[in-house]
Amino acid sequence: MITASSPHNPRCTADLGAQYITCSPHYVKEHQNFYEELLAHGILKPLTSPIEGMKGKEGDCNFVAPQGFSSVIKYYLKKSGAEVFLKHCVTQIHLKDNKWEVSTDTGSAEQFDLVILTMPAPQVLELQGDIVNLISERQREQLKSVSYSSRYALGLFYEVGMKIGVPWSCRYLSSHPCICFISIDNKKRNIESSECGPSVVIQTTVPFGVQHLEASEADVQKLMIQQLETILPGLPQPVATICHKWIYSQVTSSVSNRPGQMTLHLKPFLVCGGDGFTHSNFNGCISSALSVMKVLKRYI
């Protein structure tokens, strides 16, 4: 759930990750309170713009985030009252004086009463320190079994007043070698503004993402723009672009039986959560969060 802003105009944004939320009748009921709250606060709203090539099941509901999908995260963080520190890459976790000492790549360390890890499973296995010996062989095999797709996303930001004359807001491409999805992002969210131009998001196919995973983002961006021109010829030059490499995009294989969480240590508490323990969409994230809370409450 990454929403990028144009460096020329912060009001012009584009979702580089999740594009919309699809909710089945089962989850409409099971996660009803989450959806009602997000809709009531205007964080989500029903998707009404046309999406070409979308495959859905009968009874599914689709939602977009008018302020971009990062607004969902910001809403919950603000509500929690948590003190948030960004861009701290955790490298080691040690057990010290019945607390967890968490170290970062800058060499700083801080102690915590409990730790919840929600990074992709391969990154859990990369952590150093006492955590290495706390993960049982069975848990290690389960974490190794989680696999992810990889892809690139490119955000293109255009001048104020520029029009993109297509009848859809988003389009899936089923057989293109490079691009699998295009979104006219402001149109998808039903946002018309005289203060900012349109934004376009392109997402690559998984085979293309894997093939070019080690390439530079500049080279990949050039390829993506060339391919876009064959699909939407005549697009003017964007005023700004942002390319994002998703090494861990969607979960293609989760932990068996989808337990929602994996408890690594009880006292002090250390648990893993995230879509690798459920399935890779918003409802999977909610399900994992609820599973983590269930075991956390028992510990507290």
Automatic annotation (TrEMBL):
Residues 63-291 form the Amine oxidase domain. Signal peptide: none annotated. It comes from the Eukaryota. GO terms for cellular component: extracellular region. Keywords: FAD, Flavoprotein. GO terms for molecular function: epinephrine binding; monoamine oxidase activity; NADH binding; oxidoreductase activity, acting on NAD(P)H. It holds the Pfam family Amino_oxidase. Coiled coil: none annotated. One of its GO terms (biological process) is negative regulation of heart rate. This is Renalase, FAD-dependent amine oxidase. It comes from Mus spicilegus (Mound-building mouse).
